[in-house]
Design brief:
The protein is α/β, with parallel strands linked by helices. About 40% of the residues lie in helices and about 15% in strands. The protein is built from ten helices and twelve strands. Helix 1 crosses helix 2, helix 2 packs across helix 3 and helix 5 packs parallel to helix 9. This is Transcriptional regulator GcvA. One of its GO terms (biological process) is DNA-templated transcription. GO terms for molecular function: DNA-binding transcription factor activity; sequence-specific DNA binding. Keywords: DNA-binding, Transcription, Transcription regulation.
């Protein structure tokens, strides 16, 4: 029995208009005219006999049936895009585009990439660290390492590891006029902050320390710069275990206190469904899991 389908070429216009709630912005995204988007959506409405948008003078909004339809159409287009990626092994078999944060790239991934390249000389890794959640289709990303609570939809997401958070500092701060011996000694030192879910207020509360302003000190948007500041003795950083592991191992940083808090977020390897059929993605996935199992400092993998 033949499928009952809408005009398939019109679906991207409907999807874009539903996401933006604007025919003009949908037209910009798809490099079409406003009229072309409007005609495409009207074509779907006429074919299906339903109204997808309530059109105002200066705005549009989805009807109830249009909103429900947009969710399913979006999922279907994502699945088609993922299937297209998986079915196109020559999307550049030599180049692997990886999306991750600048902190994870600079402090954990890049120092280990030479081992991946040594084992996979035919694959060139290119890192995207813009901080924006990358799109596998429009951004040309093959695989992403994401830090969050999971629940990613429309893709395959594999758990990598949990993470702990604890104070770190230069070994120099363990000496001098006010050596770091107890958490209370933090009152004599500058606190270093980065954009992270667990902050100093939480850690100080768990440590039972009062009388220290958890907001004072220096703040960085970049985790990389925050770690560098701690390495150079600028203060004490609430460090994330993955991002400070190399500096701890090399002795550039130390842990003055034992108290560590488990982050609510974890690391996940995310890629389009079926993408492991591509040799380059399978190779990177297997290498990454081996690296995590070998030396993920201060973290635990789930069985």
């Amino acid at each position: 029995m033949p499928r009952r389908l809408p005009p398939l070429t019109a679906l991207p216009a409907f999807d874009a208009a539903a996401r933006h709630l604007s025919f003009s912005r949908a037209a910009e995204e798809l490099n079409l005219t406003h009229g072309a988007v409007s005609r495409a959506i009207r074509n779907i409405e006429d074919r299906l006999g339903i109204q997808l948008f309530d059109r105002g003078t200066r705005s549009v909004r989805l009807t109830a049936v249009g909103a429900a339809y947009a969710v399913e159409v979006g999922k279907a287009l994502d699945q088609i895009a993922a299937a297209t990626i998986a079915a196109t092994p020559d999307r550049s078999t030599r180049i692997l585009n990886v999306s991750t944060s600048d902190g994870f790239a600079g402090r954990w991934l890049v120092p280990r990439l030479h081992r991946f390249h040594r084992a996979n000389a035919d694959i060139d890794v290119r890192l995207a660290t813009s901080g924006v959640l990358a799109d596998f289709v429009s951004d040309g990303i093959d695989v992403a390492i994401r830090y969050g609570k999971g629940g990613y939809t429309g893709v395959t997401a594999e758990f990598l590891a949990d993470e702990e958070v604890f104070p770190v500092c230069s070994p120099e701060l363990l000496q001098g006029e006010h050596p770091l011996r107890r958490p209370e000694d933090l009152r004599h030192h500058k606190l270093i902050h980065d954009a992270f879910r667990i902050d100093w207020a939480t850690w100080l509360q768990q440590a039972g320390v009062d009388g220290i302003d958890p907001k004072r000190g220096v703040r960085f948007d970049s985790a990389t710069f925050a770690v560098e500041a701690a390495v150079h003795g600028e203060g004490v950083l609430l460090g994330r275990s993955a991002l400070v592991s190399a500096d701890l191992a090399a002795g550039r940083l130390v842990r003055p206190f034992d108290l560590a808090l488990k982050s609510a977020a974890s690391y996940y390897l995310v890629y389009p469904d079926g993408a492991l059929r591509q040799k380059k993605i399978k190779a990177f996935r297997d290498w990454l899991f081996a690296e995590v199992a070998a030396d993920w400092v201060g973290m635990s993998r789930r069985d």
